[in-house]
Structures are given as structure tokens and as C-alpha cells.
Write a structure and sequence with these properties.
80% helix; 0% strand
Length: 59
């Protein structure tokens, strides 16, 4: 069983990794507004990809 210190070190490492990922998101560019249209565009692209994949399997 890990000691309290080992658990705390793992917790700190996970927290630091999470902070690094959040910073990468901030550094990736300007924020994009998310609205219902944005979500529908994402869904439509996903449906197109799924349909294309199904067509490939049927050939």
C-alpha cells in the first residue's frame, strides 16, 4: 500500500500534468465561441465521416 507521501507525490504530478494541458489549450490560440450551430456542424461532420466509413465497408 502506498504511503501518504507517495500518494501526495502522485497527486501533485497529476495536478501538474493537468495544469500543463490546460496551459497548452490557452496557448493554442484564440477562444472559439461555442453555440448550437457550432455543435450541429460538429455533429454533421461526424455523421458524414460515419456514412463514408459505412460506404467503404459495403464496397
Amino acid at each position: 500500500m502506498p504511503t501518504v507521501e507517495e500518494r501526495e507525490e502522485r497527486r501533485k504530478a497529476k495536478l501538474e500534468a493537468l495544469r500543463a494541458e490546460i496551459q497548452k489549450g490557452f496557448d493554442s490560440g484564440p477562444m472559439e465561441e461555442i453555440d448550437d450551430q457550432w455543435i450541429e456542424r460538429i455533429k454533421a461532420r461526424g455523421r458524414e465521416r460515419l456514412a463514408a466509413r459505412k460506404l467503404d465497408k459495403n464496397v
